[in-house]
């Protein structure tokens, strides 16, 4: 099967060089191989492209037509190859990111605005979804999520850990009192988010004396709203409630209880992390998210 691209490339070089020998030199081929490519192209197209003798060559009308269009096409290929290769070293182009609604509104939107200001050649599209892991089908470059499924075929980069803590609103604590020990949680009103948190609560309270679940939901924002309304004690990540703690809308409880942190991770298609825009974004997020917790959860605790 003829190499159509090699034939066209050789023809354009011959037309630009003016002689077969000079074209052969530019292509790094022998004179015979260069002449053979031209003959093969003319035979395949069924027309003469170049009039030639031992000292001179000129383009036929068909040759001029092919040179004009093929020359522009090869130049466009060179340009796009240069642009694509530049993206391996320079952050440029459209960067499509997906994450959860709460994460985007609370923390990521300001960070991406900062990233965009630092990288003016990158256009950011930040999208929100209930689940942010299926980026192969959605066409996103990066998904930012919490504790992704372990069987994901995507490459995962841990950006930082997000501490978890027990907290409740002052209104609830004034009504029901502060739990003084883990065992007291079994008689308090507790809010649980999702099935996975059922296990977390049981591990905190102890298998022999499970938590009293007053309200449960699969919606983290709803659980936070219940807690702010004084409905009970909730386990939340510091990312979600840092502002509430600072403003006194929620108070941390039992700061000595060690809860496993939630991992904030970025998922991307294997190999795509080699592009400069993805690599620079991941490095930026990792650096700035790790700066996001200047005060430890224990330091935020309000004594009973």
Automatic annotation (TrEMBL):
Keywords: DNA-binding, Transcription, Transcription regulation. SUPFAM superfamilies: Periplasmic binding protein-like II (SSF53850), Winged helix' DNA-binding domain (SSF46785). The lineage of its organism: Bacteria, Pseudomonadati, Pseudomonadota, Alphaproteobacteria, Sphingomonadales. InterPro entries: LysR-type_TF_proteobact-type (IPR058163), LysR_HTH_N (IPR000847), LysR_subst-bd (IPR005119), WH-like_DNA-bd_sf (IPR036388), WH_DNA-bd_sf (IPR036390). Residues 3-60 form the HTH lysR-type domain. Belongs to the LysR transcriptional regulatory family. The keyword Ubl conjugation does not apply. PROSITE patterns: HTH_LYSR. This is LysR family transcriptional regulator. GO terms for molecular function: DNA binding; DNA-binding transcription factor activity. The keyword Magnesium does not apply. It comes from the Bacteria.
